[in-house]
Each structure stands twice: as C-alpha cells, then as structure tokens.
Amino acid sequence: MAERVPSTPSVTPDVDLGESPVAAVAPTAGDHGRPRRSEATRAAILAAAKDRFAADGYERATIRAIARDAGIDPSMVMRYYGNKEGLFAAASEIDLHAPDLTGVPHDELGARLVRHFLERWECDETLTAMMRVGVTNEAGAERMRGVFAGQIGPVLAAVCPVPDQAATRAALIASQVLGMALCRYVLHIPPAVGLDHDEVVAWLAPTIQRYLTAEHP
Amino acid sequence: MAERVPSTPSVTPDVDLGESPVAAVAPTAGDHGRPRRSEATRAAILAAAKDRFAADGYERATIRAIARDAGIDPSMVMRYYGNKEGLFAAASEIDLHAPDLTGVPHDELGARLVRHFLERWECDETLTAMMRVGVTNEAGAERMRGVFAGQIGPVLAAVCPVPDQAATRAALIASQVLGMALCRYVLHIPPAVGLDHDEVVAWLAPTIQRYLTAEHP
DNA sequence: CTGGCATGTCAACACGCGTTGGCCTACAGT
DNA sequence: ACTGTAGGCCAACGCGTGTTGACATGCCAG
C-alpha cells in the first residue's frame, strides 16, 4: 500500500499526472506514423468525460457513467488517465483562443470580447464543465485561476491603456463575463437565457469597454 | 419495504418537507412558552449544515460530517429534517433583506445596491452555500431562481424606469453581482479578492446603474 | 507458426454514503 | 413512585463509488 511499483510488466499506465498539465495527448504515434488503435478509445473517454463533468460537476460525474457513455469498461479510464483527478485534468484542458486584440480599434474592444466569449462558450461544453467543477472542487478552481492568469490576463494587458491596473481590470471583466455565463448556462435564469447574442453584446460591451479603458473611478 | 407507516409510536419525524418551504422552525414552543430542549440541537445542525454546504457543496457535504460538527448523531439529522434534501432546503433559507429603494435618489441606486450585496454576502456563508450548491444541484439552482424572481426582481421593478424591461435588467444586474461574488468568494481570483469594498463599489456601481436606468442600447 | 504486447473485460475489494430501527436515558405529568 | 414520551446514541442495512488485478482476445514481429 505504501509503494506503487508497477508490478505487472505488461500494463503501462501511461499518464503523466502532476508534471506538464498539457497531458493526455501522450503516447500516440510517436514512432513510425502508425497511430495506436487506442486513440479512438482515449478520445471517446475524453469526450464522454467532458459531457459528464459539464452536466453533473465533479462528484456526480462518476467514472462508471463516463465509461458507459464511452462504451468501454471503467478500468480503461484508470489505465489511460490514472485516476479520476487525472481524467478531469485532461478533460478540462482549455484553450480560450483568446484573440489578438492589438490593432483592433479601441472603441470596439468591448464588443469584440463579449462576442468572442459568447461564441466560445456555446461551441462546446468544456467551459461549462470548468465552471461547474471550479465552484466545488479546489483543483477546478485552480485551473480557472490558471486560465485567467495565463490566457485572459496577458491578452487584456496587451491592450489595456493602464498597464499597471491590467490585472484588476481583467478580473472585473472576468466577473461580468463569468457572471453572465453563470446566469445563462448554469443557473438558467429565464431573462438571461432569453437574450439573443446581439442583445447580450449590446448590454455587456459598454461594461467591458469601461472596465478595460476607463480611468480609475 | 413498500409502505412507510411510522411503526414506532414514540418518534415523530416532525418535518414538513414539501409543503411550505419555510420549514424547520416547526415544532418549537407552540404551547406554553416552554421551548423544547431539542431547539438547541436543531440550531446546531442547521449552523453546521450551512457551513458545510458553503464550504463543500451539496455532494461533499455529508450528513455524517455535519452531524460531527454539530456534536450529535447522524440519525438526529434525519429525525429533524427528514433527509439530506430537507436539510438543504432548511439550510438554504435565504432572506436577502433587499432594501426598499423607492425614495433613493436615482443616481445613487447603483452604489446602494452594490454595497448592500457586498455586505450581505460577507455577513454569513449562506449565499456562498447557495451558489456552490446551485451550480451543481438542480434543487439549488431552482432555489436561486426563486430568490431572483421573488426578492431581486420585485425590488428592482419598483424603481426601474422601464418597467416592461425590469426582468431583463434585473438579470443583467444579477449577472454582474453574482459574477463578482463568484470571482471573489468562490474562485478566489487574486485581483478580485484584493479589491476593498469602496473599490468594488466604485467599479461596479456605474454598471449596475446603467443596467437599471439606461435606455435600451 | 509462435510469442509478446497492446487492448479490453470481469469480478471483486474496501470504503463511505444516506438511511433505518431498536435501545437507552432522563425528565414531566399524574 | 410510576409511567409515557421526547431526546439521543448505536449498530447495521444496502448501495454506489474509485480502484485493482487476474484473465481473455487479437494483432504484429520474428
């Protein structure tokens, strides 16, 4: 129970949990171009995991349910992703595709940002999953802070006219964007769900614009 | 196993789950002013439940842990609150104390609202609990929609200069307020945590003000 | 053809959960 | 003093969980 030397020589639980959170793309066609058959399974597991985490949150998204969705045995999940935490780490890999805003007219920044995140949020369920898990699970919260610091912060800092307040202003923008996502996609508050894209942009863009470019109030 | 007629004549599981979600104040000193001894226990359970739900969310807040915190046996929780759902219903009883805003100068509405909710959010953990649970649990989400429709909506509708848009505008305000709460109290995004009350008010008040009173953009 | 390894299934494990019913204790009414 | 009952504890139940290791299968190199 103390040590965990892989005694079975055949099975290699090829998960690199802990270091390099890029993870889970790991042991594919590294050598001679022939992709391993397991790639399809890995992908199926990952897709099912994203769905379940998004729909149920961390605790209620059981490995058994994910495996059932993926059409394989629960032990496969363990083999490929080590444990539930590792699976979540892989499933919550996020690329916001935050656009390069340098060159965008300053008075269009707000609208561009709102529209981008609206589309990004609706194109797959990963962001909903991240939010559902981030609220209950410390690892999920850490991941969200990481996305904020690594992907939102820098992009906004590049165009913020008050560079030393960039972090604060990014947090304000995050609060409005995440708040709208929470009301629309998670809590399903009716009037928030009822708005169409253009209306959301029309309402939120001036707010984002002000948080980004206004003088400190 | 099929029917559940209380066979033991002594124990009366006095929980009114289902009807009148005011609940859990139930069987106190109804008769001659002599409070039952159990009131202290009920209160201890409720306090512990609020803490645990706030800290851990619905699934990870176990009845056993709540009972341990309250210094009593898990079966007591069942006796007083029926089941876990009933306990949560009682623990998430919420009164926003939404202030009457009629009479407040129109250009101060934003600041008043922001400051009120900031203080309300920090005075106890019930709101954090509601948010943590509302994100993962449908009953929790329903409760949040109820608070929105029953406590936030009406107060704002009373002062909204565009009455037929009051619901939409209330949702926008909720999105900003809940978003800031999410970033500060749940996700602990550093720049959001670092703001003091006055700074939050200074940044958010104009947003709220605009959502409430501006013309439709 | 044969051996080895990747892929996948099956059955079981230990554990913690919500929940239950029986039992003990102390106190209030008579 | 006796008794009923409210308040509380205890041990157990059935279940679903994450996780494990032994076993089956099929593919590819030699």
Can you walk through the features of this model?
The structure is a homodimer of 217-residue chains. Chain A has 217 residues and is mostly helical. The relative contact order of chain A is 0.11. Chain A folds into 2 domains: 16-93, Arc Repressor Mutant, subunit A; 106-213, no CATH class. Chain A has helices at residues 38-60, 63-70, 74-81, 84-91, 109-123, 126-136, 138-159, 166-186, 190-194, 197-213. The first copy, chain A, starts with 37 loop residues before the first helix and ends with a helix. Chain A has 10 helices and no strands. The A-B interface holds A 56-57, 59-60, 131-132, 134-136, 141, 144-145, 148, 167-168, 170-172, 174-180, 182-184, 186-192, 194-195, 202-204, 206-207, 210-211, 217 and B 56-57, 59-60, 131-132, 134-136, 141, 144-145, 148, 167-168, 170-172, 174-180, 182-184, 186-192, 194-195, 202-204, 206-207, 210-211, 217. Chain B binds a DNA duplex (30 and 30 nucleotides) through α3.
